[in-house]
Amino acid sequence: MSATRTATKPATVRRTDAMPLFVWQGADKRGKIMKGETPAKNANSLRAELRKQGITPKVVKPKGKPLFGAAGKRITPLDIAIFSRQIATMMKSGVPIVGAMEIIANGNKNPRMVTLVNAVRADVESGSSLYEALCKHPVQFDELYRNLVRAGEAAGVLETVLDTVATYKENIEALKGKIKKAMFYPAMVMAVAMIVSSILLVFVVPQFEEVFKGFGADLPAFTKMIVALSRFMVAWWFVVLLIVVGTIVAFIMAKNRSVAFARLLDRLILKLPVIGQIMHNSAIARFSRTLAVTFKAGVPLVEALDTVAGATGNVLYEDAVRNIRDDVAVGYPVNVAMKQVNLFPHMVTQMTAIGEEAGALDAMLFKVAEFYEQEVNNAVDALASLLEPLIMVFLGVIVGGMVIAMYLPIFKLAAAVG
């Protein structure tokens, strides 16, 4: 009697380049049905490999492509962090890196991540270093990640570096999440207020206007203003929608393509009350943690600073770090170079100076990062508490104002009748 189960470890086929994925099903020597997905050059080579493992293949066919584009979610930095943690854990347990990646690929539910891991594994199998294999995927593995891996391979501590990278990415993503929360909440409320106001102006106010026509009296100035705005929205709503969408698209394109606009925007954001301080603290935290991780991994300081510049999340801080790199390259201590750019608080430069004098720069920078990450957490929580009543007042003024404008003529008529 045959029992159906999924093979915990599909047939392994060595490959030197990207190979198609095949779905197979067969029976082992005990008659149990086994199935799985395995990359192979072709169906015949996979059948031969299955027979070597004592499996009689019954079905071997290419895995079908999804109906609507590439299957699976996009690969996020958190996916890369999990990948790094899994490889580091298995390597520390004595599992070879190729075997570790095979296990990760077979256990991952995101097809895009499976394809990525299999591609990296194939390159490592063919003799490339992990650094060389990762260089073929710069979108998923940024320059910082690749440099850390290269340093870890050179020093023979790859598993330790990968574990450190995983922790780093988890902390950075948590920090980004906090920043997005601080920015998203008020923006979302304003968007909802605009949508509700538009609905009132287009659908509700015209109904009241029909009622007002039967009053035979002058409307209050506030009501006239709302009615005029409603008429404009009804007649030109598509133009308003086009302007709003066009403005958003133009803003995003300008931010992504114009360095001057991005620098201006970052400068303005840093000057905003409350939000500006959160962005300052976030940039300092990211700078400190990134430099600490790269320096601890053995990356030379000047090269580390060059990598760190792009990880600060702010164009002004990126320029400042590049200036620091140039000063350090000609012999200045890091803390002296930091003072010259006039962006880092006194505490940060002093902690850096102490770390340099004690020969524990990475440890001191980790402490600085933890302090400023906690500052960001506290500021975001305080901002949320502060915004809640302000948002209620904002919504009350916008929506409540329209309601009052619609009922003012009714109140006026009632007073006249009374």
If you had to describe this structure to a student in words, what would you say it looks like?
This protein has 418 residues and is mainly alpha-helical. It is 72% helix and 6% strand. The chain has helices at residues 43-52, 77-92, 97-107, 111-125, 130-134, 143-155, 158-213, 221-257, 259-271, 275-296, 301-309, 315-329, 334-341, 346-358, 361-417, and strands at residues 4-6, 21-27, 33-39, 56-62. Strands 1-3-2-4 form a four-stranded mixed β-sheet, covered by helices on one side. Strand 2 (21-27) and strand 3 form a beta hairpin. Helix 6 (143-155) runs antiparallel to helix 7 (158-213). The longest helix has 57 residues, at 361-417. It starts with a strand and ends with a helix. Residues 1-17 have low confidence and may be disordered. Its main location: membrane. The chain crosses the membrane at residues 184-205, 234-254, 390-410. This is Type II secretion system F family protein. Belongs to the GSP F family.
Radius of gyration: 30 Å
Mean pLDDT, nearest integer? Answer: 82
pLDDT < 50 stretches: 1-17
Element pattern in H and E: EEEHEHHHHHHHHHHHHHH
- Main beta sheet, described? 4 strands, mixed
State which percent range the strand residues make up.
5-15%
Question: Which structural class fits the helix and strand makeup?
Answer: mainly alpha
Termini Cα gap: 92 Å
Give the number of DSSP strands. Answer: 4
> Helix proportion of residues, in percent?
over 70%
Instruction: Give the helix tally.
Output: 15
Strand order in space, largest sheet: 1-3-2-4
**Large-scale geometry:** flat
